[in-house]
Structures are given as structure tokens and as C-alpha cells.
Amino acid sequence: MGSPFPPGLPDWLFEEGSLTRRLVARCGQRFSLRLVSSSRGPALPDERRALALPLGCAALVRQVYLLCGDRPLVFARSVMPPGSLRGPNGRLARLGSRPLAVLLFGPVPAARGAIEVAPVGPGQALFEAAGRGLECAPAAPLWARRSIFYPRGKPVLVTEVFLPGVAELP
Prior knowledge:
This protein is of the alpha+beta class. The chain has one domain (9-168): 3-Layer(aba) Sandwich (Chorismate lyase), CATH 3.40.1410.10. The chain contains five helices and seven strands. Strands 1, 2, 3, 4, 5, 6 and 7 form a seven-stranded antiparallel sheet that branches.
């Protein structure tokens, strides 16, 4: 039985280092980040469970596209509980258009939990959010991964949805 993944995608899905750093290595000066949103709001039900957030607890939810030139390759969604934004971690709330990886893989790298991989498709909130900022609706399914990082011991859930074309990067 063959792999359920498109050719070349497993290398991206199971990358343990900085995905941003890998994209920069492939795209060079053409790499950019487009901030879609960064505001306090509810986590999705599965995000709330992963972070053990109480019902009704607002978190900082940040959504971005990672691009190579004009082409979005990854949609990333980060969920940061209020307790994870205190003290030195307050910088997480002020990233603007800088990649989260700057802090997670920086001079004091954050511990990382297991990488979970799953397909996402039409009708799922993550698929819909990823497709909202694209010129053409993506074909389903898209593959996503998520893991919890622990900057200074506090949880931050990062989900990355791989858009068509990322596996073909040189």
C-alpha cells in the first residue's frame, strides 16, 4: 500500500526544525509572511482540548500565510493561552509580521511536543480558514500538522496547513 501523502510532502510534514527557516533556505529573498489576523478569541474545540483551555477562555489566535514570492505555501494558525503571554513571553503578542519561529527557534529555543499530522477538508474550520485568503480554492484534502511548543514552559499550539506547491520547492 502506498503513502497517503503527495510525493515530497512527508519531508515537510515531519520536519522537526523551523519550517520558516526551511522556506527561507528554499525561497531566499522571495520569502515573506502575510499576517491575516492576530486577536483574542475562542480556540477551535480541538485546539481547546489540546491546550486544556476552559470553555469560554479567550486566547490570542494568530493566522498567517508563509509565501515564496506571491505564492502562499503554508497557512499557519497559532493559539496562545493568556497565561502563555505573561512575562518575557509577552513578545509573542507583539510579533506583527515577524515569524513566530524567530522566538520559538531563537536563542532560547522552546521545547516541542509531538508532531500530529492529519488531512483537513471542506467543512472543517481549518480548511476554510486556509482557503479564505487564496485566489483559487484549494483541492481537498490539504495536509496539516500541529504541535505544542513550550516557550519558557508555557504552551503555544502551532498548526501549519500545507498548501499546493510546497512539496515541489527545489
